[in-house]
Amino acid sequence: MIIKERLCYHCGLSVNYNNLYTVYINNKNRLMCCIGCKVVAETIMKHGLSKYYNFRENYNLTADVNNNDILNKISLYKDNNVSKKFISNIDGKLNSSIFIIDGITCSACVWLLEQSILKLNGIYEVTVSLSTYRAKIIWDSSVINISTILKNILHIGYKAYPYKLKQEELLNKAKFDTFLKKICVSGLGMMQVMMFAIALYAGEFNDIELEYKYYMYIVSFIVTTPVMFYSGSTFFFSAYRGLKQKKINMDFTVSLALFFAYFFSVYMVYTKGSVVYFDSVCMFIFFLTLGRFLELKAKYNAFNTINKLLLSCPVVVNLLKKIDNDSYIEKIISIDDVSINDEIIVKVGEVIPMDSILLDDIAIIDESILTGEEFPITKKFGNRLYGGSQNINKPIRIKIKKLKNDSQISHINKLIEYTTTHKPHIVILANKVASLFVWAVLVLTLFIGIFWIYKDIDKVIPVILSVLVVTCPCALSLATPIAMTASMFALAQNGMLISKKHVLEGLTLVTHIVFDKTGTLTENKFELKNVYMLNKSVNLNVIEIAYNLEKNILHPISTAFINNIENKNILIKQVKNITYLPNMGIEGEIGDDLYRIGKRKFSLNLCSEKFSSFTPKTEYIYVLLTSKKNGPLAWFELYNKLRDDAKESIDILKNSNLKIHLLTGDSSKSVKYLSKHLDINNIVYNANIETKINYIKKLQKNKSTVLMIGDGINDAPALNQSHISISMGSGADITKSKSDAVLLYDKLKMIPYSIKHAKKTKKIIIENFIWALLYNFSMVPLAACGLIEPYFAAIGMSLSSLFVVLNSLRLRNLFIKGKKKW
Amino acid sequence: MVIIYILIPINLIIFIITIYFFFWGIKKKQFDNLDIIPDKIIFEDKNNTNNIDTK
Question: Quick check: helix, strand or coil at residue A81?
Fold first, then answer.
């Protein structure tokens, strides 16, 4: 019997029947999946903005209103030192700032944000942009402060981060504006000159009086001149830059053709000759500029989507502030406010922010991002730690020694540079073909010119012009980049952020897909389902002990304990000598006793006691808490929910004949249960870093293309080894920054959809190539014979480029079986 | 047909004025967010500015 799944009205996730939340929206009680979505929906209704639900195009992000991490960052901005970096003062009390907003999916979101922020007291102006995910807000600082604004945005379900406009952004904006101006001038100019040209064509048939004919010549000249030297300058400068590098690029032929046409026409005006080509010049310039503009826009949009998250959040650190001789308090501050000799706590899995010295006795650090050294290094008290390396096994205290270069940010910046300058194989190929083509065209034109000098000298100029214009390989060089950026944009809109361009090509070749389990196929949160007390004689708060051991470790299992504390009375205790052994568990001293929590064997080793085994239920994971003094204390039953779209995604992938593999560090029966449910046959249990790497290497030996999807810290080396790596949006930062693509919103369904879209992209690029080559090769003989007038050649070339660009723009939307997006 | 000696220069003046207004619009950022304009009509917004004095 199949029961129809009920979905949360706000975010679309399935509803858990144990906790029924409802909100009355648009005449009906609507189901909500969690208290977060309920709060957000109620806030929207309270503000009288229910229209939002009528107009939105997609489900929202699941609301995260109580995320402590975010709330901490928000309260940071109350500090003037932090906020003054992002806020500019306009007029006395008025402050203005730009925010990046995470969670905008359509224009209804834009409307919702603008209207709800406007309702706050003290807000002067709000402008939200859909394509750049930015909001510009102007407010009166005596009435409202920035933290309140951010909190209100959080309450309607969006996350906002203040953003400082980078210099580069301003340059990009200026570039856009200049392009728009050039399009305007050339477009309007083109229309004017066409009007005059029609008079001249009509005049050819109807014997226009010479006086008026030459008048038309002059006005055409007057309008074309600014078009040529203002809008056309783009191509001249580009050709000049190419020549300086000893390269002839496509803009060289364009400039050549333009110069020929323009100066020849000027000569005709001067000598009162028979024909002018000012209309061709304007048309040529207009269509080419339009094409370039579209390409720039597509690239800019993709850039914004990728940057949105990577550059938006300020990085924060846990500063240890000394009060007196022996006691410290922890304070969260922005990375920009760190000074030399500050002491900082770095949690397990976090990145060391800057060059520093280790203050603890021993630490295990992964320096692979700097040295490529795959296995972690042991550091001792006083050793140097490098910014960008990662803390592996226990929280450590470090002393900052060098403030240079926010290593995490500079690493991310390098990533951005890489994506914008690195050209994928297919673009390099297209450019090579285009430059060979240009040479061939120039030589051909020369021969044709010489031929016509002997045959009919009057026709030399128009024929040369037509040949140059008709053979412009714009379609080739223009269309592929547009196709790729449009494609990446569509994918980014749906949460698949590709940062390396080889991914699109690579996705079409994938044969094997390797999944990690925890955090990838399953959610990266664990729920504490049950506690089975083993030692009833000792009066200990086992949950409190477990919480204190787990709280400084960034591991999915810790989430089960950390997220639970609102319900119980848990005290924070001091834990000494805390150690995390990957895949095993955690050990630490609380009070005068030593505890271990983790896998059965690991925990039992502490108290060397045997006891009767416990029959676990297959879907759950169990960790055991033991104490040195009192032996085994309790089993914690943890539930790791399978992602809603996991089964569907794997089914679609299997239908496309892709082999699915599961590699997991887990050894519990829950893996078998999961793999049966998902129908995966290739499984490796208990895999550590080395096992994972070797497994992938083995697959690659058989000439297969491997795509791996993971999230955790110990997935990073294996991800590196695969041909294509995708990390989950909720995964560790360092894994995300090392992988080729990031899956935002953790929508596993995007994986098969991305593969389909990549295949469609390849198809369209091939279509473009074929069209461009067919068009050019068929037109050249016609132009060489003098059968094509220059203006006609210009129209043809423009339409051909336009066709190719529009064909590529089909990739901007992800259409799946007739439904837009998901 | 002599009239074109007057009409075309007037045309050119309008041409220059149009370009000027286009440039002015670009400077005033009217061309910044073109993707949401169609939807904005449906929402029937009041403008997105508040006068602080009235609060």
Answer: helix
- Minimal Cβ distance to A123: which of B31, B33, B50: B50
3-state secondary structure of A502: helix
Query: ∠ CA(A27), CA(A32), CA(A33), 5° rounding?
Result: 165
State how far the Cα of B47 lies from the Cα of A127, in Å rounded to an integer: 10
Secondary structure E strands in A658-731:
659-663, 682-684, 706-710, 724-728
pLDDT tens-digit map of A610-659: 665 666 666 777 888 888 888 888 888 888 888 888 999 999 999 988 99
Are A133 and A105 within 8 A, CB to CB?
Answer: no
Prediction ipTM score: 0.83
Handedness of CA A680, A682, A686, A692 (dihedral sign): negative
**How far apart (Å, rounded) are the C-alpha atoms in residues A68 and A317?**
15
Rounded alpha-carbon distances, angstroms, from residue A353 to A85, A346, A379, A387, A495: 20, 9, 16, 5, 28
As a whole number of angstroms, the distance between CA A312 and CA A315 comes to 9
What residues contact residue A420 under an 8 Å CB cut-off, 6+ apart?
A299, A303
Q: Which two tokens stand for residue A773?
A: 């080559």
Inter-CA distances, A474 with A179, A442, A685, A812, A816, Å: 18, 15, 53, 21, 31
CB neighbour burial string for A711-727, b if at least 16 within 10 angstroms, e if fewer = bbbbbbbbbbbbbbbbb
What the block records as the tokens of A745 is: 């919103």
What residues in B contact A55, CB-CB < 8 Å?
Answer: 39, 42-43
How far from A276 is each of A41, A307, B1, CA to CA, in Å?
Answer: 66, 48, 22
Name every chain B residue with its beta carbon within 8 A of the beta carbon of A110.
36, 39
